[in-house]
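1st attempt posting a full record on here, be nice pls
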Amino acid sequence: MRFIVILLSFLLWPVAAFAQSNSLAPSATGVLSGAGQPVTLTAQLTEKGEPIERGLLWRVFGAVKGADGKLPLVASGKGGSQRFELPTGTYIVHTAFGRASATKKLNVADGGAEETFILDAGGLSLNAVADTMPIKPGNLRFSIYGIERDEEGNRALIVNGVRPGRIVRLKAGTYHVVSNYGDINASVRADLEVNAGEVTNAVLQHRGAEVTLKLVLRKGGDPVANTAWTVLSRDGEKLFESNAVSPRLVLSEGSYEASVRNGDEVYIHNFEVETGRNTAVEVLLD
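the predicted structure (as tokens):
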């Protein structure tokens, strides 16, 4: 199968670009207050970037493990920059921005502390077309994997079921993207680069189309009820089954056989799928 990326663009990335895809509103400052020292935490996408104003998740842990063997959570917050009041001591601070994150040890002395986290993060926004024809968003899903393979040849799944146009926050680096058009056999892959402080907008090229199956008395007629459908590939592999009157599916470009049972009769029809040409496949009831 041939995999094609037809468009890949990089945009300067203001922090506000992520606010549109983020459902987290800024929260109140940390949970600890009182006789502590002021601690201010900020995060940036790059060394020279502006502080991130929305979408951060902060967790502050004590540096000594508890009886359960875990570091105790002493403060948390979400939104942008955070101000906590913490007793003097040593803490482990973790901040996450989507799938990008950073962890630092923080020493709080008299007078408090300030710390800036550089996330070295960017964004990835994905879409796809079939030929030049837009694909319905409901028919598209993307999965993002790490680029490296393990000893068994598998890549680590980072995020699954990504909808088209959504900005996914990621550490800068190269990622392996799988795009599924429908849920049968139309898919493409591409290796894409994410740069810190930028959104990578990629449009992948699918080779497939939507197909509607109908058993009819005459061409252009209404579909006949009481049907059971099976679709086979050219090699005889069973790809699809349905008892719907007029099922709709997505197939990659190629040759197929539709078999439909109506009562005791079975009707066979061979058909072709061409990229970007959504079509109705009519099987005539003899």
